[in-house]
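Sequence only, no structure available. Ideas?
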Amino acid sequence: MAYTLADLEVLQQWDTPTICNGLEVVVPERRAIGFTTEPMVCIDPKAKPIVGVARVGMIRSTEPPRGKVTDRADWYDYVAKTTDIPTIAVLQDIDGRMGYGAYWGEVQSTIHKSLGCAGCVTNGSFRDLDAWAPGFQMIGGRVGPSHAWVHMVDYGKPVNIFGMQVGHDDVIHADFHGAVVIPADAVRKLPAAIDLVSRREKVILDVCRAPDFSPAKLRAALKSAAEIH
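Reply:
I predicted one. Tokens follow.
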């Protein structure tokens, strides 16, 4: 494995936009891919970011299941943490009307928390905000009241959450801003890249916050920041 639990825990000190900044340095070819691109609803915006490996699945809810139904118990076995690395449930609602019925609520948040899952990223809906499992993070598409016909369609296959393509075991970083996939070989490179971006930004921010700010000083700061490596 290209990273350890300790490597992932280090990344929790930064918000998801900062992780995206670092990825622009480490893997610039992914600058426009690998992250959610629609507004999302976070159940606990003040919580630390969640970082873990993806457990991917698909749901729908606008009509009853047809044909062979995926057993939720099989999904639970798949999600269960089998190493020291936390899992993150990444569920794509594949209905045309995403979030029509909520898979997530008091029961599912409690079950998944007990399985060692750190949270969920979904384009679907969730409910039971006042009875949610404490410490289980949710970054979802919307809040809704009913299950409708929600059921598991499949799991273990790649999914797409608001433009973010995710496969099994992809490293996910998520907070109230949204979520991003971190390539495995980029995990250990991110701290140095984030430090570089932060040092460049500090030069500009210090000038802008100074009482003697001027456009000329900003121009000089921009040039100075670009020369930091």
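The chain has a mean pLDDT of 96.
Hope that gets you unstuck.
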